Every structure is written in structure tokens, then in C-alpha cells.
Amino acid sequence: MAAKQTANEQVGRRERKKAQTRRSIAETALRLFLERGYEAVGVREVAQEADVATATLFAHFPSKEALVFDQDDEQEGALLDVVRNRPEGVSVPEALRRWFHGMVEAARGEPELDRFHRLVESTPALREYSAKMWLRHEEALAAVIAADAGLPASDTASHLVARTALGVIPSISSLDEGDRIVDETFDFVEAGWAAATADA
Could you give all domains of the chain from N- to C-terminal order, each with its CATH number? Predict the structure, then answer.
């Protein structure tokens, strides 16, 4: 039993160290990109600044663009959990509404977020990567919504809910209008989803 516990502790330490290394690389990359511009900073320079080998960097991030979106998987997981783990009696649109209100609130405490958005929008490679990333999230969210409602994966209403929900993200970068935009969007989504699932 003691040997098994020691082995588990070693695995836990390794995983924590890997996560710490990944976070350090991503934070270093973003700092350099914001300071000097995405195109002006090379991957080797990021690795040197983060004090890791280039091979280590690529073991954590498959591309230079991925350095900017290091929370891609966690973001998708959190989004899907909004549907899967919502409280009893809360509709899918309402659960998503609450999550997006949380995003707006969290963004108000992140003064660097506006610089991050400007970096992405001003860099074609990052805009393209971001668009593909959110399309993956949209497909995953639509599948979870459909499954939750007992509908086929190709269900049109589920895809429309996912697309409309994620389509709100660029609009809420204006934090002064963010809460209003979220409410207006999900009032619309709620009505449409209720009609689409009335007989489901």
C-alpha cells in the first residue's frame, strides 16, 4: 500500500510539474508577444526566455499559435460542463446565460484582456487559429446539447443554440454592454429552444 501511495505521489508531482512548465511557457510567450508583437518573436526565443528546450516547448504546444490559446482544452471542458452539470430545473440556455455573465464579470478583473484581444485581431494566423478553435467548441457544445435533450447529433436547433451562444463572445469584449448583450441574446435563444424542444 505504501509503495502504491508513493507511486501515486510521484505521478502527481510529475503532473503538477508538467502543468507548471506549460503555464510558464504560455505566460512567457504571451508576455513577449504583447511586448513586441507576435511576428517579431520566434519559438526558440520563447523557449530560451522560459528556460526550456525547444523540444520541451513543442511537447506542450504543437504550434506557435497554440501558445496563445493555452487554455483551449480547459475552456471547452468548462463550456460542456455548463450543460452537463447544470442544476436541476435549469434550462440549457439559462445555464449558458449564467456562464457568460460570469465571463463578463471575470473579464472586468483582467485589465490585460483588451490587449490580448487586440493581439489576436491584429494577427491573421491567430485570427484563423481562434476561428477554428471556436468552431471545434461549437461542434462539441452542439453535440452535448443534443445528447442532453435526447436528440440526434445533427439536430439543427442544438447547433443553432451552440452557434448563437458562442457568437456572443466577440460582442461582450465591450464590458460596459456585456451583460445587456448576454441577456438579449439568451432571451432569444431561450424562446427558440423552448419552441424547438416543446415536443421532445
Answer: 2-63 (1.10.10.60), 72-195 (1.10.357.10)
